[in-house]
Amino acid sequence: MDEDKTQQLPRRMTRSSASSSPSTSNNIVAAKVTSLEPLTINDLLVGGDPISLDDIISSFPGRSSQILEVVRHLGPLNSPILPLFVYGSSSTGKTSIILQLFRHLNRPIVYSSCRTCYNQNILFESILNQLLLHRKNAANGYLNAKRCERPSDFVNFLREALTNVISNLKEKSEKLISNEMTQGKIGNMIYLVFDNFQLVREWDKSSTILPLLFNLYDLLNMPEVGLIFISSTSPDTFYSNMGYVEPIPIYFPDYTEEDIRQILLRNQVNQKLYSSFLE
Question: Do residues 141 and 30 make contact, with C-beta atoms less than 8 angstroms apart?
Answer without folding.
Answer: no
